[in-house]
Amino acid sequence: MAIVIDGFVYASWIFVVALGLTLIFGVMKILNVAHGAFYSFGAYGAASLIGLYSQTGLPVAGEFVIILLSSAVIGLVLGYALERVLLRPMYGHDEVVLVLVSYAAFLMMEDVLRLIWGSDAYFAYQPFVAVGFVEIGELIVSNYDLMLVGFAITLGGAGWWLLNHSRFGHILTAVIHDREMATSFGVNVVKVFLITFILGAILGALGGAVTAPKVSVTPGMGVEVIVLAFAVVAIGGMGSITGAMIGALMVGLARAAAVHLLPEVELFAIYVVMAGVLVLRPEGLFTRVQARKI
Amino acid sequence: MWKLNSVMKTGSLAALVSLAFASAPMAQETMKVGVVGFLTGGASGPFGIPAQNAAELIIDAINNGDLPGAYATPGIGGLQVEPIYVDEAGGSTTQVTELRRLVQQQQVDAVVGYISSGSCLAVAPVAEELEVLTVLFDCGTPRIFEEASYRYVFRTAPHATMDNVGAALYAAGAMDGVNNYAGLNQNYAWGQDSWRDFSLVMQHLNPNANITKELFPKIFAGEYGAEISALLISRSDVLHSSFWGGDLESFIFQATARGLPLRLPMILTTGETVTFRLADKLPDGTIVGARGPHGVLANESELNTWFRAAYQERFGEAPTYPSYHMAQGFLGLKSAADAAAADVGGTPNTEEIIAAFEGLEFEAVGSTVKMALAGGHQAISETAYGTFRYNTDTGMPEIVDVVRYSAECVNPPEGQTSVEWLEAGMPGAICN
Amino acid sequence: MMTSDRTIPTITIVAALALVLGFVLPEWVLFLSNVAIGKALVVLGLLLLWRCGVVPFGQALFFAGGGYGVGLLGHYYGITDIFILTIVAAAVGGGLSALAGFLLARYRGIFFTMLSMAFSMILYGVLVKTEALGSTDGIGLKRITVLGWQPEEQFELAMYIYAVLLGMICAVLMHVYLQSVPGRLSEPIRGNEVRVEYMGMSVQRLMHINLIIAGIFAGLGGAVTAFSVGHIDPEMAYWTTSGGFVFITILAGTGSVLAPFLGAVIFEVIRTLAFSYVPDYWQIILGGALLLSIFFLPGGLWSLIAMAKGGKKNGLNY
């Protein structure tokens, strides 16, 4: 039972983090390594703002607002800057080039992070502590974690609705499946790319922001989270929100099971699952298999 | 011909490279000492910075001759100390490279450093290869001198066995009956050895006690949700943890937020470092150690009084055990070098300092240190454990119910490894 | 018509020059050079895979495999002979890549990159969690011996000479391979696999072979690094280590087998200088260098030398 709860909590966390990545991956076919930087910027931004805010004595609810707002701003600024300056000039090139560009951007952003915030750990536990905890059976679960599960489900639902029932979502789906065809139908793909990237950046920053109250915010948190997010995206398939949810669940449950039952494999259980899925179905679980164009 | 061109290019590139790395000529009037600790990352706040602060303080005091008592002579072996601070972050292989740079490029005369047991294990053999006098001031794994012997490497602080024997003795004494205990330790030498020593002593004190959970998350993991869940349902009487630095602080925050301390009191062998940093965030009843009589657990002495006052004045807060350990490292080095200088009647060389260092007994800040193990290279001292209380009247954190254990009670004797000594039931231990 | 290929003589001359320099360079520079050569060997393998059109983000797997093979043999069995250890490292690198290749050879593009990254992270997880393999602390290496003789005083120089010679041999071998039939058929895989199949070569088998070769080289690189540094830890298998190798590949370009060595030396110089003097900026410098390389010098630094030769600037070789 503890495994299920822990698994869901971990899955919700990694889902929020990976959602932006799978969106960018699906629409733009870019494996955005800089997503880790969006994440850590989001975490640091939220942590320092929450720290400042908590000293003013205003109600704790404001801190949740901070989490949402700060990630929106950070994602907007960083996403726009990165897309316009570095990625757009490279769109004609192979996908791998864009990965490398995003990797270079990631390196630079990690240092910028250090220059702004220093190298110490930041703690922003106020929201985590303030909402208290609840007993479920033998286990004590933090209400913050439960809120995170709810938030993840909401986000997933909103994303699904956006993709399937809104005009923008239909355009996105068209671009995901066949970029050239979409262009020939009059879709401004460049604009779609920009919006998607910013959206992905905001989601990445949001992932970091909701994580900040749970952990100590240190440089290098971006490095660790990238591979986890990649695993989820690889398992779920590019651009599929359902895929990301299932991928996150698989990763979360695998890790929770490992910690409780077989701690020795805790670190690589996730990658074994990822490798397994990639071997069986390389496009991930939820994408349409693409016909190879010669 | 471009072939010749490229040959010339390679040659000039090499020349430029060598110029860039040319080592500075060695100054004879100063002793260059590399000082290594965590200046960045989660371990810097509770450990690296207090250690660096203490280094600055002690080095200035040594150079000016401000230390009280027998340490009043300026310099180490008569030489002024010139520190070079190096960040311990980046992993063991980076530290090995940095040590080589300190010795081969910067040409230091000695190195005082290393908080993480991982760093110590990696650099000790390299220090020996490079023949540089190295004082390990803080790291705790017993393996350093139990798995190899060194001529150039010394450790001026006792190792983890002392901390964990003390922890077990105190827990057995302070709690009515420990029938089930769990462990949460970082998965590397320090964590593994701490848990091993603790559980061996517990087994010896109460053979019927059960180990409910042995958790070894990765060092610097930072997030312990699953571990906390496992501990919540483990039905244990006490939790042992050798967590330190950012990991410890993260764990306490996360555990407190989920009510774990209400179910499970903790023994934190490095707890003194967070006593003042976390203050009322640390749960009452937590058993804390300072890896020796340090901080508020230090014995009264002129040196201790001076140290605490000077540190408080310069840095605005009280010194914790990493500061004490760093001071201890330099005091040991000074003690040995001064003794060697007196013997040879001038500036001693490394070999002479080593000879004086082996088996040395010197006064540290609020304690006495004996280089009694590993052929005189490994220190022992007494230790102390207490229980944490946040005094709501004064608004100050306190450590109460302090119990002291003599050096011979909690350290293995010369010639036996910690495991041998503990498995044999700690023969020869002289306890009060 | 065969144009005269001056690569092999050039390699020999550069190696000879490096050896001569080794006797006058300070110990610290020798150490850095050894580490650079270790990386260059891995990148040599990457060069081959790059030309095939795949970008592995997991060469660290074989690099760490070679390094750990060397370290574990020394730690548990006391084997310290440099030649035995070199062969072991190559075997471990080759063995691991042979195994991994069964799966990896089937994929291209992003999936290849991700799968390769996943494999190296699996090794990382195993290394961290296994106490017998040293966990996070890693393992210190015993002193390397050469056929029984222990180079005490001039250890760094001895390792340097060995590294240069090994580097030279590997460069020559790689060059010969690239000129051979399978080597020449590897490049068209990038453009059109079906065409290569029509020419009678099984693409999957070719990729598998290339992966094994790259794995062997990476294992050798791990060994050379381990010899000099004297310490191995799980970081060797982390994805950022692989990232470093990819970085050098881009920086250096894939125009010649000498390019990895040039790139590795420059990378090591930049990294060490930046790390020592501006530790807060070194990733910005590296990232900036990478971006500049991608945007303005897609053929890498080697294309500059090629241009000086009077050749054309290479395009991005993906």
Task: Report on this structure.
The complex is a heterotrimer of chains A (294), B (432) and C (318). By secondary structure, chain A is mostly helical. In chain A, a hairpin with a 2-residue loop joins strand 1 and strand 2. In chain A, helix 1 packs antiparallel against helix 9, helix 2 runs parallel beside helix 4 and helix 3 packs antiparallel against helix 9. The mean pLDDT of chain A is 84. With 432 residues, chain B is an alpha/beta fold. Chain B is built from 16 helices and 15 strands. Chain C has a two-stranded antiparallel sheet with strand order 1-2. In chain C, 58% of the residues are buried. Chains in contact: A-B, A-C, B-C.
Low-confidence stretches of chain C: 312-318
Relevant CATH superfamily of the largest domain in chain B = Response regulator
Mean pLDDT figure of chain C: 85
Main sheet of chain C, how many strands, which sense, barrel?
2 strands, antiparallel
Instruction: Give the total of beta strands of chain C.
Output: 2
Order of strands, widest sheet of chain B: 7-6-8-9-10-14-15
The SSE string of chain C, one letter per element, is HHHHHEHHHHEHHHH
The number of helical runs of chain B is 16
CATH class (first level) name of the largest domain in chain B:
Alpha Beta
Structural class of chain B: alpha/beta
**What oligomeric state do the depicted chains represent?**
heterotrimer
Give a short overview.
Chain A contains twelve helices and two strands.
Offer a few descriptive terms.
heterotrimer, B: 432 residues, alpha/beta, Rossmann fold, 2 domains, five-stranded parallel β-sheet, 16 helices, 15 strands, disordered N terminus, C: 318 residues, mainly alpha, ABC transporter involved in vitamin B12 uptake, BtuC, two-stranded antiparallel sheet, 13 helices
